[in-house]
Amino acid sequence: MDKFVKILAKDEPYITPDCPNCNNALKIKTEDFFGANDNYETICPHCKGKVTFSGIKKQLDQLKRQFESLGITW
């Protein structure tokens, strides 16, 4: 797993994106979400609908660049 993801997960063990179907917050382990290939699929516990997040690698790269622009490295 990416060292950046491990550092991020240590500080923030869960992320809480909204379900696109019912707008309730999903609780997803940070390592599971950002450790996914490029897509992450789950079932919403609220509406029981299938939820797919795509483009994760691109989001992770953008997040890394934001930290790097602040002078934060790992």
Notes on the protein architecture:
The protein is built from 3 helices and 4 strands. It is an alpha+beta fold. The strands form 2 sheets. A two-stranded antiparallel sheet has the order 1-2. It has a two-stranded antiparallel sheet with strand order 3-4. A hairpin with a 6-residue loop joins β3 and β4. The longest helix has 14 residues. It is elongated, with a radius of gyration of 13 Å.
Number of strands: 4
Structural class: alpha+beta
Cα-based radius of gyration, to the nearest Å = 13 Å
The average pLDDT is 91
Taken as a percent bin, the fraction of beta residues is 15-25%
* Helical segment count: 3
Largest sheet descriptor: 2 strands, antiparallel
Give the fraction of residues assigned to helices.
Answer: 25-40%
Order of helices and strands: HEEHEEH
Determine the N-to-C terminus distance: 14 Å
Low-confidence stretches: none
Shape: elongated
> What strand order characterises the main sheet?
1-2
What's this, in brief?
This protein is an alpha+beta fold and 74 residues long.
What descriptors fit this protein?
alpha+beta, 4 strands, single chain, 3 helices, 74 residues, two-stranded antiparallel ribbon
